[in-house]
User: Fold this.
Amino acid sequence: MTQSIASFARRSVRRSVRRSVRRCLPPVLLGAASCLSAGCQSFEFSGEELTWQTLHVVDVAQTLSAADDPCYVEDAYLTRQLIGSQPSQGEVLLWGAGMAVGHAWVTGLLEERGAPAWLRKTWSYATITGTGIAIASNHAEGVRVFGDNKPVNGCYAS
Assistant:
């Protein structure tokens, strides 16, 4: 009985998160379109922002690889709350694009508002470090971007 209640709760949370993502998609797309038409194409990224964006692309690629493998589940708490434990490729791509735009926006906002240098550097290095740790952790758990993921003991899904 307890397991069925827990299972029901997980399904309900997954459904509500997916509905939230679907509700958020039009504003995100509209925001990206207006950003591109308003001159963001000339937005210059700092070296730290380019580093984070590059690491984020690797993290998204790893998440896509894991999403295609039924033996792997999303382990990061916040990401799991946003896209679920076994997301579709579309959910992963939407999450990846949203995070990339959001990170660039926060970085730009910190620079535009004249935030102290220590705060900008802390933001940059903390997010670079966090994403780097996520990539290393994914690799250690067997997630491979190019090639097959390592087999998971006890998982016999084909």
In short: DSSP finds five helices and no strands in the chain. Residues 46-140 form one domain.
